[in-house]
Amino acid sequence: MPRRPRIRFAHQVLILQIGVVVLVAVTGYGMAAWVQRDELRHQFGWRALTLARAVASDPVIGDAVASGDPQGVVEDRAERFREATGALFVVVTDRRGIRLAHPNRAEIGRRVSTDPSAALSGHEVVVIERGTLGLSARGKVPLYDHVGTLVGEVSVGFDAGEIDRRVHRTLAIAAGLAAGTVLLGVAASAGIGRRLKRQTLGLEPHELAELVQEREAVLHGISEGVLALDDGGRVTVCNEEAARLLDVTPARRTLIADLPVTGRLKAVLEGEEVSPNLFVVSGDRVLVVNRREVSHGGRHLGAVISLRDRTDVESLARELDAVRTLFDALRAQRHEYANRLHTLSGLLQLGHYEEAAGYIRALAEVPAAKEEPPGSVPDPYLGAFLAAKAAVAVEKGVELEIAETTWVPGRVSEPLDVTTVLGNLVENALEAARLGRRRPARVEVELLGDGHDLHVTVTDSGEGVPEDLKEAIFRDGVSTRQGDGERPRGLGLALARTAARARGGDVTLVDPGEDDAGAVFVARLPEVLN
Questions:
Q1: Element (DSSP H or E) covering residue 118
Q2: How confident is the model over 122-139, as pLDDT tens digits?
Q3: In whole angstroms, what separates CA 51 from the centre of its chain?
Q4: For residue 49, which of 150, 165, 156, 194 has the smallest C-alpha distance?
Q5: DSSP summary character for residue 272
Q6: pLDDT tens profile 307-355
């Protein structure tokens, strides 16, 4: 079992997001300060260089420096340049680096404190250096007289402290923006944390992991098929049993309407028909389907559909019906023979011995038949099955007749398929005749063998099939009568057609019935006779 963290996952996410926002803000703040400082130094340096070029371009200054400045012109003109531009200093030197102009008169006549060699060699220089007036951004250019002779240098500087002051003002504004960004990030992180909590229903990651593991164990460990849908009708979960029963493995997020299913099963999956324990036919299977809508906190989340395979159970039920039918026939025969024995016992008790002997002879006489009676079925399985159905028909007040044109020369090789088709057709016909208004109520069965194929025609005296059900009568769940609560209605004809088509045959309604006759169903069963 995973160890549970001390801090809730939503709080961990909030702390992490706040840390990231703060880190990004601080990093951005530092980068902005560095870029701003570098840009200002560059600007101040070029500003000093531009002013130095302007001073050096004054021919009066160049000629004065060449003559040793006996009139003190250089200092005066340099000071006017400095005051006009707000520079920290404007220094003019001769070729030896001796100052001829300086804001501090005490420094005039002394050698400059920084290296003048680059400018005195004819090159321009932009540099940040510390001199007698402190740290400054400096521009140094060579000084020429009117004939172009190099006579000295001009050095202009701007206070580097101004750079720091401007950077600090800019960073103060940036700090406010960074603080606002951090606060906005914290608020957004808190909102994301709350949304995450709602999306996960307040569960922690280890709880979600446990739920997923439990879900996988349950879904793949049960014998039922489970299909889960979201609120948009898309498949989110489908276990192996559901894929087997549906004969399709849907990809995640597949629309339920796109699944290759038809009939009543499709209506249940799409939510058009909702009822507990619905019996539907899917291919050659009989399924019990349940659909349940899922909601949480008043919000519709989707639906869960369970599928159970009842094919084997339904087959056993059909076989049990056949056994019960045979049992009913045997019970009827037992009742008949019991009556005969009671008659014989009464004759003996009353001393009518000659009448008793005659009664025994009458029971023992079996007339020899020269040929099969009309409508007989030589196959023992079909004969026993129809005899049993005839006994059931008698109990329902219906006459079950075998058509005189019946002819089955072979033997049944596929009794289960034949029982499913013939049994459902006869059972439906008996119910239709029993509930119909025509009397006597009757059902006629015609069996014709054609090589290995068997053709079945069942006609009843019922009310027939309504016009609006002619096309739908073979769909599962469709019936001309209501269920009795014991077994689901609307499966018999669907199962009969499914069984016939599985063998390459079919079951069809050739006559829905008229005013003087009931419905006529015909079935073709290939390769069921030897």
A1: helix 117-120
A2: 899 988 888 888 888 889
A3: 72
A4: 156
A5: S
A6: 887 766 666 666 666 566 556 556 655 655 666 677 777 778 888 788 7
How many other β-carbons are positioned within 10 Å of the β-carbon of residue 360? 13
CB 315 within 8 A of CB 338: no
- The pLDDT assigned to 520 comes to 92
Report cis status (omega within 30 of 0) of the bond before 415: no
Other beta carbons within 10 Å of 166? 16
How does DSSP assign 158-198, residue by residue? EEHHHHHHHHHHHHHHHHHHHHHHHHHHHHHHHHHHHHHHH
Phi, psi of 232 (to 5 degrees): -100, 10
Q: 381 near 415, Cβ under 8 Å?
A: yes
Distance (Å, rounded) from C-alpha 380 to C-alpha 26? 97
Q: What is the secondary structure of 468-499 as a DSSP string?
A: GGTTTTTSTT--SS---SSS-SS-HHHHHHHH
Starting at the edge strand found earlier in the chain, the sheet holding 89-94 runs: 99-101, 89-94, 150-159, 134-144, 125-131
CA-closest candidate to residue 438, choices 510, 514, 521: 514
Q: Do residues 56 and 62 touch, judged by C-beta distance below 8 A?
A: yes
pLDDT digits 0-9 by tens, 26-43:
887 788 778 877 888 888
